[in-house]
Structures are given as structure tokens and as C-alpha cells.
Task: structure prediction
Amino acid sequence: MKTINKIVFSLIMLFIINGCQEEVPQLGTLYVPTNLGLIADVSADGSGLVNFQATASEALNYHFYFGNSDSEDAFVSSNGKASNYYKKTGTNTYLVKIVAFGEGGVSSSITEEVEVFVDFEVPQDLIKSLTNNSSKKWYWKQDVSGHLGVGPLFNDAGEVVSDPTYYAAAPNEKEGLCLYEDVLTFSDNGDGTYGYTLENQGNTFFHADEIQDAIGEPGPGGDACYPYDTSGNKEVLFSPINSGVNPSTGVNMDFTNDGFMSYFVNSSSYEIMSITNEELVVRVIQQRNELAWYHIFSSVEAGSGPGPDPEYSDLIWQDEFDVDGAPLTANWNYDIGTGNNGWGNFESQYYTDRPENVIVADGLLKITAKKENFEGEEYTSSRLKTEGKFDFTYGRMDVRAKLPGGGGTWPAIWMLGSNFSIVGWPKCGEIDVMEYVGNNPGTVQSALHTPSSSGATINVKSTSITNETTEFHVYSVIWSESQISFLIDDERFYTYKPSVQDESTWPFNASQFLILNIAMGGNLGGTIDPDFTESVMEIDYVRVYQ
Result:
């Protein structure tokens, strides 16, 4: 009897369960991928390309983590094939992780080391413009049209588009938003690596379509500023690029740790279209919309730095040094005597006008500093000037020169106020277009001497240079009513523009004459190499424009 009651009770309970609950879904078969393996085919051409092939039994798809960064997203492949370009130059080892997923969502994974060699030498002139070979700040060039713009990747004919044909921001269009507050700093670490920081003052300007994913809340229907943490140093990886964009430097920048250049379009890869000491133009692809965004940056902060240099194109004076012999007496005269004869800086040379020290030959003016006993000094040289023969007020001067080398040499291309004999120095003002110290190769400087800052002037800036004693470079000054700029090979590296211009800071409203010389030793030249015998400054031309 008890057995029958148990059977009836069980049937009743089974009926209740089946009648009160929905049907329980059946769990499918779980297949864990096995025999997971990876083949990495590293390109031998130094491009950084690696082709991967992952294989496993019972795998539906594969997730690749290439080891580019700790925060990278997975690349998903259904057939186990994947490719990746590694950007860091030299030989580097990456940890590549493969996760194989089987039916039911179960997975297995392996991690393999892959050694990749990238043979790409970043152009040093690009690095110099970008970082000034140390650290350099960049700002939005907000006062030009198209400083922020967008266009398609291709036109209807399938050709690459290189312009923001869809939209180009008008000058200062984003004023009042957070965009123009950003400061981008690029650094040369000195060991072949390069850094980047973005100071966004706490807020970032987002593309409307990226707000949801990046911020986690619906966007307002247009681009907007949101609080966003961009702190921390990023590494900049340079690599070659052949996108078909024109113009282009052929160099691409990738930022580690999700770095980006101020405007957020969810990309960390930027092609450098063009770069000078003062302007940087980049192109970035927004993958979500397949759009090309264009950014223009300036190394001069808007409203706080020097303005554009005026264009001086009328040639008013020149010496091409195409007549052999002594320099033309119509253009030049000389300072004769020791370096301490009232206008020296404790120098060790005696200036002469002898052909041994100054001559025109082979289309070049040659000023030679020599080690020899002469008039009580151990060295001779020459110092030419146009005083009383030519001077000018405002304009541009270009001097193409190859500099002398050797410890103790101190060549200079400079200008002095024509009222020097009346008001004296420094009231007359001095413009040092180029000064070089043989004891400090690879560096030249430009400076201004005024009553407010004369001897060890604070109005000075040095810059790096290469092959200065073996190749010709053009040293220039552009002098206007409000500022004086210094350039090497037409690249500006220093501008003097005092906020208050008076007799103390700006004696540069009157004519100046030109001076070319090589000093030996002295305050700036320093210790003279005991093995020094002679060295020559060669000048191809001097040209003045207004």
C-alpha cells in the first residue's frame, strides 16, 4: 500500500512541475578546442609585417592579441588567419596571445613570443621639427581655415582624397569649447624612443559618434566636450606609410596606450602630411565612419607668440663673390687690430685685411683664422663690415655659408646699429644672426643685445644643426617693425618680440650694417685647441631684401 501511495505522489508532483514551469532549455554540447597552435611568418623586408595562422580542433573562431599594448582590442578571425604591422624600430619581442573559442563558448589559449625586426630610420629633420631634439609643445592653429576638417577616403573614381572636402572649420570657429585649450608635447628621449603627452585641462572634444562608447552615455547629437583623463606619457612609434595622400612625409605616428591628438575619433594612428618648425599637419582615419580627419597644429600658441613674418622679396643689395681677389671695396671695409682693441671679448686673434686671412676665390668669400705670431698675437683672422658703405632698416638678409671648425673658433654673422659711433653699445642694438662655437659642434645660436639685456643676454636661442662645417646652410634674419626672426635653411627657430617695445628693449628702429668674422677664444669661443692650425669660413653670397 505504501508503494502505491509513493507512485501516486510522484505522478502528482511531476504533473505539478510540468504544468507550472516553462520548458527548461536544453544545454548544447560543449566542445573545448584542442591542439591549438600558431605559425608566425615574419616578413624579412624589415617592414614589420607578420602573417599569423592559428589552428585548433573544434574551433569556431580565434581572437588575436598581437602584444602591441596592454589595452588592445582583440582581432577576431574565423579562419585563424591574421596580419599585423609592428611599428617599433629595431628588433623587439612581442607576446602574442591566441584564444580559440569552440561550440558553447568554451575556449583554450596559448601565448607565443614573436621577434620582429623593423628597419625604418625616422628622418632626423622631421624629429627636429617635431621635438626640437628635446621637447616641444604644439597648439591648434585655430586662426587658419581648415585647422579641423574632414573628407572621404576616396572620390567617386576610387582615387585617394587628400582634402577636407566635407567640412573645414573656419578660423576660431571652436572658440569657447575645450578644443583650443589642449597642449600637445612631443619629446625626443635621446635613446631612439619618443614620447607624447596631451594636456587637455580635464576635458576632451569628442566626435558625436564616439561619445557613447568612450563615455558610456548617449551623446547630445553633436560633437561635445566631456571630462576625460589623458594623463600619462605615451610612446610614439614611427613607421613608413604609403597611403597615396599628397602631400605626405611618408611617415606615420602611432601612440601607445590609446593616445590621440586632441580631437577624439577613436584612433591612435596619424599620418604626417607635412611638418615645419612651426606647423604640423596630420591625417587620421575614423574607422567607424571611414572618414579622413585633418588637423593643423602650430608651435606658436595663438595670441601669445610671434606673428607671421612679412614677405620681403625686392633684392636691394647683394655680394655674390664672383670676382677673384680682395673683397669689393665698394661693399666692405675692415676692423684692424687685436680682439681687445675696444670692441673685443678677450679674444686671441689679430684682425687683418691680408689675403692670407681674407680673399675671394672660386666664387666664395674665404675668411681664414690661422695660428701664427703676428703683431704680438698668436692667431690671425679677418673681420669685414659694411659700415659707411651699406646699411638698412627692416628687411631680410640671407647668408649662405659653410662654417669653420676646431676648438676655440668663434665665427659670426651679425649686424650692428649704424649709430654705434654716436650712442655706443648696447644702445645701438646688435643682431647676431649666427654664432657658432667650435667647442660645441652641432649647435648654432642667434641673439639680440639691447640696453635691457646686453652682455650675457637672455634674448638668445640655440638650435641643433648637422654638417655645419662640411656643407653650406643659409642663415637668415627677418626684421620688421614689431619682431625679429631667425631662420636656418628657411626654417624659423627663434623670434624676438618683446611685449613692451621702448628704447631699452627695442633699439631696432634704425639702420644696421653687416659684419662677418672669425674670432678665436674669448668669452664665447673658449679654450683654443693647442693643435689648431687654421680653419676657413666660406660664404657663397650675402643678399638683402625689402
Q: What stands out?
A: The two ends are 124 Å apart (CA to CA).
